[in-house]
Amino acid sequence: MHRTKEWFIILLCFLLPLASSAQELMDLQECLRKGLENNYALRIVRNEEQISDNNVTLGNAGFLPSVTLNSGYNLRSSNSDQFPAGEEATLQQRNASTGTLDAGVNLNWTLFEGFSVQTSYRRLQELKRVGELNTRLAVENFIANLTAEYYNYVQQQIRLGNLKYAVALSRERLRIVESRYQVGSLSRLDLQQAKVYFNADSSLLIQQYEILHSSRIRLNEMMGGDVNHTFAAIDTTISYNASLQKEELLEDALQQNTRLLLAVKNKTLSELELKSRQSQNFPYLRLNTGYGFTHYNYNSGTLDRQRNWGPTVGVTLGYTLFDGFNR
Fold this sequence. Notes:
The protein is α+β, with helices and mostly antiparallel strands. It has one domain (2-67, 106-318): Outer membrane efflux proteins (OEP), CATH 1.20.1600.10. Helix content is 56%, strand content 23%. The chain has 8 helices and 6 strands, in the order αβαααββααβααββ. The chain has a 4-stranded antiparallel β-sheet, with no helix packed on it. A two-stranded parallel ribbon has the order 1-4. A hairpin with an 8-residue loop joins strand 2 (66-82) and strand 3 (91-112). The longest helix is centred in the middle third of the chain and has 67 residues, at 116-182. It starts with a helix and ends in a 9-residue tail after the last strand.
């Protein structure tokens, strides 16, 4: 039974390398390229940036008027009794109906509302910039996370190679101990110890294959590819720029750090929100104009039909005295 288990472990250690021998070679740049193109989280962030970009319009801020076209038909039926002064006869009218057909086009334009329109447009522009910074931050975090996982994968590959070598040594040691045990130069205890060392190293090797497999799955998920895609990392050396200076890095961080820039933009948005609220303390001026057509049909009275048409113009000046303590 023990010998069967030993042969199973030996066979498994041989088959696992064969299963991963035919692998694609990928460097860090290739992984980053695929990830930046296919990562689903980055796609969502880019779509949100595009939405904030599309929202920056004069109409969305309230600069432009709204134009509506409307039409309708109403039918009114009524009965009436009239009592003339000094006469006993009552004038009765039954089932008198009036049909009204309306059609018109209207234009409504807010000319002034406490500078809230200008504030809204600036806010949309700032939101566009925030969308760009969010995309930039997501890309920076993605590059950092994928690079860290890539070099973790490299580390696990190196550790796998070391464990393979350790298993090979344990296997050779077990063979030598078995041979010496057969000729009587070593005890059974020595043989059992050699088997224990071989089994322990083989177990670590199998666990290392699982660790490497999990790291590869995470990399494939970050690259937006098939999680079962196998590849080998070939960038095994971390390069760095020896000319970097602490003072320059600190200055660049204060001027270009994405999180700091986002904090500044959020502060600006809060200030614009305050200005928008303060604009409610001003009066508003609105222009209303339009052109309408109305047609009447009568079944009683002196007129059979009537038509009215023409333009209308109006200006509304108002001030909100109370809005439920919302200001």
